[in-house]
Amino acid sequence: MRIIRDTVFVDSADRGAVAAIGNFDGVHLGHQSVIDLARQVAKDASAPLGIMTFEPHPRSYFSNNPTPFRLMNAEAKANRLEKLGVEKLYELPFNASLAALSPRDFAQTIIADQLGLKGVIVGADFRFGHGRAGTVTDLAEFGTQMGFGTTIAPLLRNDLGNVSSTAIRAALSDGRPRDAAVMLGHWHRIEGDVIRGDQRGRDLGYPTANMSIADLHPPKFGVYAVKVNVLTGPHQGSYDGAASIGVRPMFGENQPNCETFLFDFKGDLYGSTLSVALVDYLRPEQKFDGLDALIQQMDADCDQARAILANV
């Protein structure tokens, strides 16, 4: 998959794609249905399959609320889109110039002139242009005038209601990772590099891989049964484990992070990139009377996680 991070880097081979447009945060089943439709349109047009998305997320650009909301970072999103067969990822910088474009100017300048797309696919609730003034009806009219096709994908519903990033965030906040997975079509994953922590886990007999969740929507704090993929480094592979997400109340005030203990693993993961899939929520964070009580609970957590993961 080729990633184009600015329209100034578009060459002739990047033009003429059929692209789904959106933020695709989480790449959930609703997003996947849009991508599947784009794949069929691209095949019919003998064109590459593309995705147009934006960094930073427009919500981050406009909001004064510092609370993290993203389900995945840009790298994790790109990894997921590549697995879905996307050939061209147009990851456009969302800045003042882009935000100021009227709906017509966005269609003419970005879609038609700079990217030369053959067709675009969007969800039925898609809005675009300055002030989100443009509708799917406007986009279809612009496409007729400017020479690109427009396909509208219906919104997806399941037994839990509308499939949306908002609904997935709510499920994760409630400690319902399996409900989130039903809407995502895959386990919710936290991806990032392993950073150095206080190494308390090593002293307790539970060495953990520490990852920041600073820019991500925080799941309900507590302990989870997890599936782990080590994506880079000498220990690449798949492992089961248990992860604690939160502020570690046993040891004072801390920045929220994800600490993962990999079962039956020995090795150094510092600097490696991990993808930690949340399977089940086991319990909330606790402050124990002493280290012996903490270790006893960690033993029980790992036994419970092993039993759960044996059936996943």
Automatic annotation (TrEMBL):
Which pathway does it serve? Cofactor biosynthesis; FAD biosynthesis; FAD from FMN: step 1/1; Cofactor biosynthesis; FMN biosynthesis; FMN from riboflavin (ATP route): step 1/1
**Enzyme Commission number(s):** 2.7.1.26, 2.7.7.2
The protein's matches in Pfam families, at most eight in alphabetical order, are given as: FAD_syn, Flavokinase
Keyword list (alphabetical) reads: ATP-binding, FAD, Flavoprotein, FMN, Kinase, Multifunctional enzyme, Nucleotide-binding, Nucleotidyltransferase, Transferase
| Top EC category | transferase
Report the sequence similarity comment from the record: Belongs to the ribF family.
User: PANTHER family recorded for this chain?
Assistant: RIBOFLAVIN KINASE, RIBOFLAVIN KINASE/FMN ADENYLYLTRANSFERASE
Q: What is this protein called?
A: Riboflavin biosynthesis protein
User: Which organism is the protein's source?
Assistant: Yoonia phaeophyticola
